[in-house]
Design brief:
elongated, 434 Repressor (Amino-terminal Domain)
């Protein structure tokens, strides 16, 4: 583990493992991380609402397989669809932050 001996912060670890901010490798990591976070938030919100994937899909006019893919971090999602799922399907407001 010599490679990690000079790592002192989480940011340094991420840079060592996934490259500098702006690199294609780092961008892919960031994209996958955001998709994972969104998928976990969706899954948690659906379970808190006591809905099945099929019930949620019916509420927002999509298919269960689409909800499943999103919850497993496997699908791309348009912003309008994400808002519809949370606001119409789960009765939750969604807020966005741009950094």
């Amino acid at each position: 583990m010599d490679r990690y001996k000079n790592v002192k912060t989480f940011d340094e670890l991420i840079e060592l493992e996934h490259g500098k901010i702006g690199s294609s490798k780092r961008n892919k990591y960031e994209e996958n991380s955001q998709m994972f976070i969104m998928s976990e938030m969706l899954k948690t919100a659906r379970k808190e609402a006591k809905l099945t994937q099929e019930q949620l899909a019916e509420r927002v006019g999509t298919k269960k397989s689409y909800i499943s893919r999103l919850e497993n971090g496997k699908g791309n999602i348009q912003l309008a669809t994400l808002i519809r799922i949370f606001e119409q399907g789960l009765n939750r407001k969604i807020g966005l932050t741009f950094l």
